[in-house]
């Protein structure tokens, strides 16, 4: 027996009339299913997809790095700018502080990263601020009033973005997180010899962005030797077809200025060693970044487990310390040694510390105090202060 379609509708209407509660229940179930499914879909979208749609909703965004941005921070920022441009959102990179270290300067120049320095919050000229590689704005006037729209970071922190927060403290580099965003969008890394316009994909990772992100992962994991997780390796593998090896070589092996090498040589020559601890005074320098680089060399000397290098520039004595000795918490040692020196500041982590001492008294008084300071540093390393 066949049933005419009209008859089916008629029967359904009859059932519905006699059981209104059934209709109501069906309606509620449908709404819950559709609504819930929609919500679930929104919430379970990969982070990269959510991030891209956040960017797409804005006319323009500012990507902000921490003070003195390193390759990981600059690479992450480049990645965000590239994503923004691909969803037709204008994006600029801003940074507080200075770019002095030769590795950072080389990275910026070779990859032609456009980033502008800011001094105060008003320089940001937009409310849509995206923080990369840090999660609390710092290093400029009014930084504490900036409420970031989004935070993408790999340092353990409670910092949050108003609309988007992605802090993956287990990752070795922020660049790995950004690379994953591209991967979430099925973006194709563009090989250095290919043209972007000839790639048949909705999203791409331009070659210089892939190269930058790849190097960001390398530097923040000390060439994949420390703090690396499989996500960092996955990100590197994903980016590798887009990596331009000649650019990578230029970024990874920057020219070192003669002064940095001279300061390193002085630090080694002038070292005063007692037991496993070395302290070295390199005198006046014109580039204070040479001081941490010098202590990085000094700590590599056989038999040395903790080292401090100090030098003067523009009336300030700069100290930089390294420890690979469990007995010495370098940050605390420097802090203790400078504790009651007027206007001095010092501190840091177990393996890395630094400090600054303003010298207003002129050279006449200072040499004696400098000897005293060296003595205190030595006692602090030995745990006596
Ligand atoms: Mn980083």
Automatic annotation (TrEMBL):
Segments forming domain DDH: 61-190
TM regions (residue ranges): 22-40
Domain (DHHA1) ranges: 278-358
Keywords: Hydrolase, Membrane, Transmembrane, Transmembrane helix
Presence of the UniProt keyword Coiled coil in the record: no
Signal peptide limits: none
Alphabetized InterPro entries for the sequence: DDH_dom, DHH_sf, DHHA1_dom, Oligoribo/pAp-PDE_c-di-AMP_PDE
Enzyme class: hydrolase
EC number, UniProt record: 3.1.3.7
Domain of life: Archaea
GO MF terms held by the record: 3'(2'),5'-bisphosphate nucleotidase activity
The protein's name: Bifunctional oligoribonuclease/PAP phosphatase NrnA
Source organism of this protein record: Haloplanus ruber
């Amino acid at each position: 027996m066949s049933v005419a379609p009209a008859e089916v509708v008629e029967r359904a209407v009859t059932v519905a009339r006699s059981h209104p509660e059934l209709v109501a229940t069906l309606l509620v179930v449908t709404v819950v299913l559709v609504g819930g499914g929609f919500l679930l879909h929104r919430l379970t979208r990969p982070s990269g997809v959510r991030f891209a749609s956040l960017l797409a909703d804005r006319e323009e965004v500012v990507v902000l790095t921490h003070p003195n941005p390193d390759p990981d921070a600059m690479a992450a920022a480049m990645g965000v700018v590239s994503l923004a441009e691909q969803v037709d959102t204008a994006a600029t990179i801003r940074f507080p502080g200075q770019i002095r270290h030769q590795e950072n300067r080389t990275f910026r120049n070779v990859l032609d990263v456009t980033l502008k320095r800011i001094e105060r919050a008003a320089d940001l000229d937009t409310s849509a601020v995206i923080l990369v590689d840090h999660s609390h704005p710092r290093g400029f006037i009014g930084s504490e009033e900036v409420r970031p729209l989004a935070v993408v970071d790999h340092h353990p922190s409670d910092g949050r973005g108003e609309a988007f927060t992605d802090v993956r403290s287990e990752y070795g580099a922020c660049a790995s997180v950004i690379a994953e965003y591209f991967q979430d969008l099925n973006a194709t890394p563009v090989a250095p010899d290919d043209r972007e316009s000839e790639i048949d994909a909705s999203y791409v990772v331009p070659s210089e962005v892939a190269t930058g992100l790849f190097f960001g992962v390398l530097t923040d994991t000390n060439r994949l030797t420390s703090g690396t997780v499989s996500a960092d390796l996955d990100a590197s593998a994903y980016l590798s077809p887009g990596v331009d090896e000649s650019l990578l070589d230029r970024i990874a092996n920057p020219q070192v200025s003669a002064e940095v090498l001279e300061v390193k040589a002085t630090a080694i020559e002038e070292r005063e060693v007692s037991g496993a601890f070395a302290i070295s005074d390199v005198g006046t320098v014109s580039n204070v970044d040479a001081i941490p680089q010098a202590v990085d060399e000094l700590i590599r000397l056989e038999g040395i487990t903790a080292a401090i290098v100090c030098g003067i520039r523009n009336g300030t004595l700069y100290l930089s310390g390294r420890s690979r000795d469990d007995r010495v918490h370098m940050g605390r040692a420097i802090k203790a040694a400078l504790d009651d020196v007027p206007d001095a500041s010092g501190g840091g982590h177990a393996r890395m510390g630094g400090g600054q001492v303003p010298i207003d008294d002129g050279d006449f008084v200072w040499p004696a105090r400098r000897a005293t300071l060296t003595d205190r540093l030595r006692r602090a390393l030995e745990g006596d202060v």
